[in-house]
Fold each of these.
Amino acid sequence: MSESRPRIVPEATVARLAVYLRVLAGLADGGRSSVSSGELASAAGVNPAGLRKDLSYLGPCGVRGVGYSVAGLRERLTEVLGGERSRPCVLVGIGRLGSALADYAGFASRGFQFVGLLDSDPRTVGTEVGGLPVHPAEELEVVVARTGATIGVITTPAEVAQAVCDRLVAAGVRSILNFAPVALTVPAGVDVRKVDLSVELQVLAFLDQQRDGSAPVVTALRADARESVR
Ligand SMILES: NC(=O)c1ccc[n+]([C@@H]2O[C@H](COP(=O)([O-])OP(=O)(O)OC[C@H]3O[C@@H](n4cnc5c(N)ncnc54)[C@H](O)[C@@H]3O)[C@@H](O)[C@H]2O)c1
């Protein structure tokens, strides 16, 4: 009985599955029909054993000696990651970063559609970014209810991010992507992912230091630890 229970996919694996999907989309655009595990692993920046372990969550999908069908694996990953459904997102804080995100067309092609933009600055409210009008921040609950947004993206200053998050959650949003440099507190049942480019840069700086032998205390990270920071 226990064999039929679905395996829980760890969050770090989900993030890597999304990277494989992006790599496969690029290969498909280039007209490729198959890819070896070595090539896919290298393009995704992981080791082949890690790739095979990650893909084992999808069930059988590769053919020994042939590799993976680009279309087949892409379809399976899309299905598992829920990318077939369009996900409506609201974006709060339409400043420099928020405007750049709202104006980026690449999210829609991956199934993430901005459906509502909100800002508290009267100079920004009423302007259009990426073809959408910016609504006053007070309308957050109305916009979430009207659009059925399921993901809230926060690009406000850190001081107000928790309050914005609380309002998104109270309005029924269960997935938050936070760019503000603050750890948000959310009730059980709500998922928060934090994006922090400075952490990524710090990791790169450390790996660079380690490569040239000037890392001060930790001289080597275990291979699996290196894997988990990617
Ligand atoms: N995660 C990263 O790697 C990364 C990179 C750059 C910036 N940031 C963070 O992203 C956030 C935005 O940065 P920015 O440079 O775009 O700032 P910005 O000042 O240009 O934009 C912030 C916007 O939020 C709006 N705002 C303020 N309070 C609000 C509220 N209560 N409700 C709705 N809107 C509100 C402001 O009017 C402004 O338009 C900051 O927290 C910054 O630290 C993160």
Amino acid sequence: MTKVAVLGSGSWGTAFANVLADAQVADVRLYGRRADVVDAVNQRHENPDYFPGVELNPNLTATSDPVAALEGARFVVLAVPSQSLRDNLTAWRAHIPEGAAVVSLMKGIELGTMRRMSDVISQTLDIAPERVVCVSGPNLAGEIAERQPATAVVACPHEPTAVELQHLCKSSYFRPYTSTDLVGVELGGAVKNVIALAVGVAVGMGFGDNAKASLITRGLAETVRLAVALGASEHTLAGLAGMGDLVATCSSPRSRNRTVGEKLGSGMTPDEVLAATRQTAEGVKSSEAILALARANGVDMPITEAVVGMMRNEFTPAQALMAFMSRSAKPERYGL
Ligand SMILES: NC(=O)C1=CN([C@@H]2O[C@H](COP(=O)(O)OP(=O)(O)OC[C@H]3O[C@@H](n4cnc5c(N)ncnc54)[C@H](O)[C@@H]3O)[C@@H](O)[C@H]2O)C=CC1
Ligand SMILES: O=C(CO)COP(=O)(O)O
């Protein structure tokens, strides 16, 4: 059986490891830092912190020893916060098997370097981009842990590797498609978190579906502008990792990013919101990196700019709305 190591036993690491175990074609080992989580997965087939009452596949085993998790792995799946990926990888690097493909589940851009996660992986591990895969799409972890139906995209510049992972994670409730457009798939996942923050702000301010749909649609337009400028195909952004994920995240009260925005929109300060947020809301930090990336490439991203301004406490949600609505009148454009 193909061995797969999943490193990170938070929300998505646990749910994706369970998808792999349910697909029944891989031997899956989940690494977690916390002994109590590891014990609960092994003994009660549950991760009570994230999915209380949800029964995980009994064949899914967990360990708090990364070396044991990584031994013999054909795929190494990474599910940690984007901003800690580089440090985590540096610690794990020596134990990642030669020739293993490395899979990013992250949806963020590194602060400071403006790098996509696949780039951080190939740089830190000194491996070719063809060995790096990204899985993304409309994948709210809670729904997937409950085995509700979902689709996703498995992206890798080396298509056979994407197909190999596709077979390992295809199950009765999880339908993965493949793509070779790693740039488009990664940017779709990272930028949608920022747009979900903006949608959350609108919800928190008490606005309705017109405002939400407007932000989703113009959010997609600015995502496409950035992605195409960086070499992605605009078709990718019309697909599951672009529009699909944007719609799911912006519509779901389960989204951490949308929830952060909602709190901001309802009058809490950025500091108060962050103090009340326990899980990873990638858009908070990635919005800064995405805005820097946009500016470096001459791309206009007004919604991202508004989110950054609100998170920096430079202006209020009401001021951000005013700034957006009073932009110069122009023809509607999608993409560049
Ligand atoms: N939760 C979801 O619905 C989905 C999340 N993602 C992405 O997956 C990535 C991981 O997110 P989640 O699993 O939701 O996050 P989480 O906050 O639930 O879990 C993060 C995990 O990383 C571990 N970790 C390792 N080093 C860490 C450090 N230095 N600081 C904090 N935690 C550290 C934590 O112990 C924890 O197990 C993010 O990029 C997120 O955007 C993607 C799709 C769905
Ligand atoms: O990426 C996700 C859904 O695809 C999860 O979104 P949040 O991180 O906002 O919860």
